[in-house]
Amino acid sequence: MGEISIGKLLIVGLIFVLLFGTKKLRTLGSDLGYALKGFQNAVKDEPTKAAAAIDKETEETIR
Prior knowledge:
2 helices
């Protein structure tokens, strides 16, 4: 009952295509990819920004 097979995935995919159409799904997929890429860039850049802020605070404390 809880197993997900290829047949079930194909049926769900077919239902999505019938409900939304291929153009809408393509747009949704590209938007999702863009959002994930932006999230990955933000996560990757965050530690370097945090480290720079800590270095700056340490430098100001020493002076």
